[in-house]
């Protein structure tokens, strides 16, 4: 859907008791600016195997009905030799200088990783505040990239009753043996947390979630 904003150009201003002469050349003049529509080509999350090649899919953009994809500015550095998560940004600006940015996550994963849907499902979370059945969901996004809705197992959402805004979602991968897992990136109201000492027994995940001086033991058990 095109986003349109209409500007009415000011004719004159009245300050206190001082008036200005009307400018009949601009009276009633208006113009329309079209905000760009921009969207990613391909997936929001892409996986590249460590040591492989990243091929940029790009983005497409339109200003009103005009294709301006060639004006999209792409930025971001991806080290395909280093395991981790990277962000690619796509910026487009319309003729009136209004810009818009969208992003894509690129995950560089080692060849030694497990690719399986067996971990998909609901999990009971256990932490220092209690046990919370079916409080967490883990999803295999493909190619060995996994997403967890709350790596701290509802400690803040339910334990402290802060609500869903205080979940700590994140991405991780599992080694081929299915015995260890490694956090890639997390998000929270406080900033980035670290997943440490991730061990896996069947479909039971155990780790410590760390932030500053906080070091919280967590267990996620598939329902």
- Spatial order of strands in the largest sheet: 14-13-12-11-10-17-16-15
Q: Care to count the β-strands? A: 17
The biggest beta sheet reads:
8 strands, antiparallel
- CATH topology of the largest domain: the name is Lipocalin
- Count of DSSP helices? 1
What would CATH call the class of the largest domain? Mainly Beta
Mean of residue pLDDT?
89
Blueprint of the fold:
Elements: E1 3-8, E2 30-35, E3 37-40, E4 45-49, E5 59-63, E6 66-67, E7 73-75, E8 84-93, E9 99-109, E10 121-127, E11 130-142, E12 145-148, H1 155-159, E13 170-174, E14 181-186, E15 194-201, E16 204-211, E17 214-222
Parallel strand pairs: 4-9
Antiparallel strand pairs: 1-2, 3-5, 5-6, 7-8, 8-9, 10-11, 10-17, 11-12, 12-13, 13-14, 15-16, 16-17
Report what the structure shows:
The structure is a single chain. This protein has one helix at 155-159; strands at residues 3-8, 30-35, 37-40, 45-49, 59-63, 66-67, 73-75, 84-93, 99-109, 121-127, 130-142, 145-148, 170-174, 181-186, 194-201, 204-211, 214-222. It folds into two domains: 33-109, Sandwich (Immunoglobulin-like), CATH 2.60.40; 121-222, Lipocalin, CATH 2.40.128. β7 and β8 (84-93) form a beta hairpin. It is mainly beta and 223 residues long. Helix content is 2%, strand content 50%. It contains one helix and 17 strands.
